[in-house]
Amino acid sequence: MKLELRSVSKSFFSGGRPQKALMDVSFDTDFPHVLALIGPSGGGKSTLLRILAGLTSPDSGEVMIDGAFLPKAERELRAYRSRLGVVFQAYNLFPHMTALANVMLPLVQVHGIPEAEARGRALQIMERLGLADHADKHPLQLSGGQSQRVAIARALAPKPELLLFDEPTSALDPEMTAEVLKLIAELKESHTPMILVTHEIGFARKIADRIAFLAEGRVLEEGVAAEFFADPRSEEARRFLAKVLAY
Ligand code: ADP
Ligand code: MG
């Protein structure tokens, strides 16, 4: 899947004043690979991820998917979104449903897969993610790490073409962070194309093939991860890396 952004800008109004989240962002990326979006907080990473996921529409500029303009009509956007798996910081599981039912839900409701088949597929992916013993539990009975793995199972079950993560470990304690990062590393081993917003820079360095570095609403660098970490070109990236890799 090829994603292209052409001069994309996005502002939000907060306190009556426009806050520029993205300013004239252009770049393209041709999956399969792992792309990590990194940079200081407030730099526009989540906004960029949501635009790429078809969840937020830009104020101006264009998004192209495999050479075609991303549709603006909700119905067609839904078709695009159904090709993706998205995992957010807060797992967003339905509390009144079991883990299994949460994983089954998009299979049945978005993809129209019959209940019995959806159950089989959900159980299979939960088994693979070490969640077989938790299938009948409700989210409140799960740890944060387990909940996030259920959210990842839910995103993976429909076999998405691309997985998008927005700071999937930032709500977790260190032990559970390790558990989720290990799972993401395994997904990379199985060649799942991913976009990963993360503040775990050591992890990004380990698993990303490419890096996009964002600060103040701009993509200041985009390129091969090893080259970025060996020799960042922008002063902002140098400063950022010096700060986060210093300890
Ligand atoms: P990051 O993920 O890199 O921390 P974001 O994309 O979340 O950055 O935010 C970029 C800027 O846009 C920030 O100044 C943020 O406050 C603002 N912003 C993002 N989303 C919203 C929103 N829904 N409402 C108001 N302001 C927002
Ligand atoms: Mg963010």
Explain the overall architecture:
- The protein is of the alpha/beta class and 247 residues long.
- 38% of the residues lie in helices and 27% in strands.
- It has helices spanning 45-52, 74-81, 99-109, 115-128, 144-156, 174-189, 201-207, 225-230, 235-244, and strands spanning 2-14, 17-30, 34-38, 60-65, 68-69, 84-87, 162-166, 194-197, 210-215, 218-224.
- The strands form two sheets. It has a six-stranded mixed β-sheet with strand order 6-7-8-3-9-10, sandwiched between helices. A four-stranded antiparallel β-sheet has the order 2-1-4-5.
- A hairpin with a 2-residue loop joins strand 4 (60-65) and strand 5 (68-69).
- Helix 3 crosses helix 4 (115-128) and helix 5 packs parallel to helix 6 (174-189).
- The N and C termini lie far apart (37 Å).
- The chain binds adenosine-5'-diphosphate (ADP) and magnesium ion.
- Adenosine-5'-diphosphate is lined by residues 12, 14, 19, 21, 41-47.
